[in-house]
Amino acid sequence: MRPAERSRAAVRPRILATAVLLIVITGNVLAVTLLFFAAGLSGNPLVDIGRLTGLYGGLAMVVQLVLIARLPWLDRRIGMDRLTNWHRWTGFALLWALLAHFVFTVFGYSQIDDKGIVDEFASMVTQLESMLRAVVAFVLILLVGGVSARLVRRRMSYETWHFIHLYAYAAVVLGFGHQVLLGKTFSSGGIAEIYWHVLWILGLASVLVGRLVLPLARNLRHRLRIVAVVPESAETVSVYMTGRHLDRMPVKAGQFFLWRFLTKDRWWQANPYSLSAAPDGKTLRLTAKAAGDGSASLRSLKVGTWVFAEGPYGAFTAMHQRKTRALLVAGGVGITPLRALLEEIAGHVILVYRVRSEQDAVLLAEIRGLARARGAAVHVLAGPSDRAGPFGPLLGPDSLWRLVPDIRERDVFVCGPPGMTSATLRSLREVGVPNQQIHAERFSLAT
User: Fold this and answer.
1) Which residues, other chains included, contact 206 with Cβ-Cβ below 8 Å and sequence gap of 6+?
2) Mean pLDDT per 10-residue run, the chain (447 residues)?
3) Phi/psi of residue 23, each to 5°?
4) Cis bond leading into 312, ω under 30°?
5) pTM for the complete prediction?
6) Strands 438-442 and 283-289
């Protein structure tokens, strides 16, 4: 494939998937608006605004379901990193829409009933069927939104955050019940009622298929179990797994799974780890640092333990490579998906590995062996995070330019802690690497 053909082929999947999502969402916003006006206005502007923002909130809930459904077609093309980010911003839109729905509805009906705001709200909760469940749903959404704020999320273990996030599903069920019982759109019948039922069915079905049916089917087929647990350093460990028909598993280097190790004390925990070696059709390997409670206990896993793996997920793969050369930039244990990519990515490769000390460079010996075998270059940049070289920060624009003079002609894959990744992305843009050649994954999400 010529470079121009590779460029067009690589960019098409992500652009196509993004365009499909935008068209579908825009079309549904227009449909919701038209159906609202077709159902007729109440005569009170505040109530009408409250109704419309409530409908937008319902649509936002369905969009949220699709974004987190982990549907393979979307995930492979857009990536969970982007989908999760869009899910987060859609969540903020949902919060504002529901807040507006609550405020405008209560204020509007207080005018109609000639009551005070507090009295009107109290009578709505006690007298209207499903109002209490709507209030509970709103409180749950506030809770989930609060723990998803970056400042709070950073202080919370993945396991705790994930458990609290499950309350969002209860909020969806309660919100749907509220819309069915009190929504004028549902009670009006006709096209509007059919539209909303179909919309909710598709949203819930996408979660059911992506999060339950596909993982169950794949695990029944592949039946993964542990064959080796190998300490890589004082803080890191690799877990090797095998199973049936792994050569038919649709997995690529750079992707990750949500792993459940089926022991009596761990079966309920799902932790995201990237593959640290390209899949060979016989085994899968993850390598993790003892960071959270789940990661720290990997060393105690026994050979023969059964594994339930959800995935593969992520668009951090060679599928999106546009150029015939690549630069891989890793920070800490963010090396794991890049170590796997080193086996699959096409063309000449330069790998830059940022660590505090060379002793912290996980899998360095095998990375150097792979690099020699394929003619790649490896640069280990060791030192504290504030260390600077002769040309500024070690991953600053001047340092990268001197280290990789043809950097603008390469795809750049970056994986590491959020701070390191953000700083590296700024450097890449300063030296003029086009956005479409930059591929990033923050390992706080995917490793």
Assistant:
1) 65, 66, 69, 71
2) 42 80 96 90 91 92 92 88 87 89 91 89 79 80 75 70 75 74 65 90 94 96 96 90 96 94 85 93 91 69 96 90 94 92 94 90 94 95 76 84 94 92 94 92 50
3) -65, -45
4) yes
5) 0.80
6) unpaired
